[in-house]
Structures are given as structure tokens and as C-alpha cells.
């Protein structure tokens, strides 16, 4: 007897329709409802997928309590949803970073994530390869991360979040964050960052890291580590659709012990990058992180 597909519901942006279709085509999962904040587009997407339409995210959260929830629409994963998401029977995943007022984010610090961030580079083989390399050669003196995607695959803020999470886990907290983006107007919140960005992170022990990020390119995630005459290039060749599918298919493994991003802390580092783009100068991460450590 064939195994019953895992049911999931998706809250997406219209530009992410093709991504949802790619996930849906992979075996073992079935989208039973879809929605987006653009009401007219939401009906059309549901019709194309031959699935149920949902006009409100909060309604989707509660009505489809027994199905995994995937939040993909940029900025839709708001801190005001967190307690509601934690009360669900089935887990929730998000491919857009947590957003909300600063004090609401501070309140979320240290709590079990309401939704698990996917894809997270720390769940990839690349992370394991680098840890093995560090065990033999020590922490890299220089770490370079490239994370790019097309506009239908996410945003610059999503790539920045994933890269900062990886850096913070591998090397630790940067002393300064110096970033540059190509936006004519820097947004008021890091979650609204779009376009291209480079980031230079300096650490207290003279180690450094650089990030190359974009939501105007093809999907790519790579890490290059350099240390005392030794270097290692790691390319993650998994597609975004396969990573999302894998998270849905293994949803029963999600728990408080599952690898997850400390969203408030990582968002503080992202905010330091946004401020640096605004001021044109390096920003000290300690001034922002202090709010979460108090």
C-alpha cells in the first residue's frame, strides 16, 4: 500500500507560485490549501494547483491545524503570530525571517521557534564538512559565504539571515559589521532588504568573514574557508525546491532539539548590516545584541 502523502498548506507571494509547483511535483507531499496577501492572485494560484484557497494567514494557521504550514511570503512571518503558531498540532516552517517590533523580537529571544527556518545552511552537508575541517585545521582565519537566489525564491533579507546564522554559529559574534547594498533607499527594517549586498565582518581575534548576497541571481550557496595555507571550498548543490520538500517530508522530526536559528539574535546582526548600509560606516554589533542579552 502506497504511503499517504504528507499534507501541507502554503502562504506564498504570487512570484513564488513556480517554486510551490516544483515542491508539489516532488513525491510524498501534497498541498491542500494555498493563500497569499494578494487576494485576486490567491484564487488563481489555488485554481492552478487544484487546491483549496485561503484568504487569511491566521485562518490558515488554525483551520489547517493538522497540516504542516509553510510561510514563504516575504515579511509574513510576524512576531504577533508566534504564540498562535506554537499552539498548532502540526509544525510550521518559514523561508522568510521573523519580523516585528524590536521589543517583540526581544521577547522571543530564547524561546522555542514558532516556525523552523528553511532552508538553513547549518542543516546542510556543508556545515558538517566545515566542522570536520575545523577539527583538523582549527577555525578559519577567513570565511566567505555566497548566497544568491532569484526573486521568486526569496529575498535579500532571507539570504542575509541564513548567512548570519551560519557565521554566528561557526566563528561567533562579529565585533563590527560593514555592509553595502545597491538600494537607492535603505529600508527601515532589515526584513525589507532587496537587491544585492556585500558584508565584511571583523572579529576580535582578527578573523574575518565576507558575505556576497543577492536576490537577483540564480540559486547558489557556497562557503570558502581559508586558514594558514589551507583552504576548502564547499558548494551546496541542492535546489531550493528539494530543500523545502525535504523539510516538509521530515516534518515529524521537528522538535525543540532540532537545529534552528536563534531568530532574534541573528536578526540583530542583520539589523547591524542594514544600519551600516544606511550610515556607510561599520556598525558595532554589541550595541544591538545587548538588548537581547540583558
Which characteristics define this entry?
seven-stranded mixed sheet, 294 residues, alpha/beta, 23% strand, globular
3D architecture notes:
With 294 residues, the protein is an alpha/beta fold. Helix content is 35%, strand content 23%. The chain has 10 helices and 13 strands. It has a 7-stranded mixed sheet with strand order 12-11-7-10-9-8-13. A hairpin with a 2-residue loop joins strand 11 and strand 12. Helix 1 crosses helix 8, helix 7 packs across helix 9 and helix 9 runs antiparallel to helix 10. The longest helix has 17 residues. The radius of gyration is 19 Å and the shape is globular. The chain starts with 5 loop residues before the first strand and ends with a helix. 43% of the residues are buried. The model has no long low-confidence stretch (mean pLDDT 90).
Question: TL;DR?
Answer:
This protein is 35% helix and 23% strand.
Amino acid at each position: 500500500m502506497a504511503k499517504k502523502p504528507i499534507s501541507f498548506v502554503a502562504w506564498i507571494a504570487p512570484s513564488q507560485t513556480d517554486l510551490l509547483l516544483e515542491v508539489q511535483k516532488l513525491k510524498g507531499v501534497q498541498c491542500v490549501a494555498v493563500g497569499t496577501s494578494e487576494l485576486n492572485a490567491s484564487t488563481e494560484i489555488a485554481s492552478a494547483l487544484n487546491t483549496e484557497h485561503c484568504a487569511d494567514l491566521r485562518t490558515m494557521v488554525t483551520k489547517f491545524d493538522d497540516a504542516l504550514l509553510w510561510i514563504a511570503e516575504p515579511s509574513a512571518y510576524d512576531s504577533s503570530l508566534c504564540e498562535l503558531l506554537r499552539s498548532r498540532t502540526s509544525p510550521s516552517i518559514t523561508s522568510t525571517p521573523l519580523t516585528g517590533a524590536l521589543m517583540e523580537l526581544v521577547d522571543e529571544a530564547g524561546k522555542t521557534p514558532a516556525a523552523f527556518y528553511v532552508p538553513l545552511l547549518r542543516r546542510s552537508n556543508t556545515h558538517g564538512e566545515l566542522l570536520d575541517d575545523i577539527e583538523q585545521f582549527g577555525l578559519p582565519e577567513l570565511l566567505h559565504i555566497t548566497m544568491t537566489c532569484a526573486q521568486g525564491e526569496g529575498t535579500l533579507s532571507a539570504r542575509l539571515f541564513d548567512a548570519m546564522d551560519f557565521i554566528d554559529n561557526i566563528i561567533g559574534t562579529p565585533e563590527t559589521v560593514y555592509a553595502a547594498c545597491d538600494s537607492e533607499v535603505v529600508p527601515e527594517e532589515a526584513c525589507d532588504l532587496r537587491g544585492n549586498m556585500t558584508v565584511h565582518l571583523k572579529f576580535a581575534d582578527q578573523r574575518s568573514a565576507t558575505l556576497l548576497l543577492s536576490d537577483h541571481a540564480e540559486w547558489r550557496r557556497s562557503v570558502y574557508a581559508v586558514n594558514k595555507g589551507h583552504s576548502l571550498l564547499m558548494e551546496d548543490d541542492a535546489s531550493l525546491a528539494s530543500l523545502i520538500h525535504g523539510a516538509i517530508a521530515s516534518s515529524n522530526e521537528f522538535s525543540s532539539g532540532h537545529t534552528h536559528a536563534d531568530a532574534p539574535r541573528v536578526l540583530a546582526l542583520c539589523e547591524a548590516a542594514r544600519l551600516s548600509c544606511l550610515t556607510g560606516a561599520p556598525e558595532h554589533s554589541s550595541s544591538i545584541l545587548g538588548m537581547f542579552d540583558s
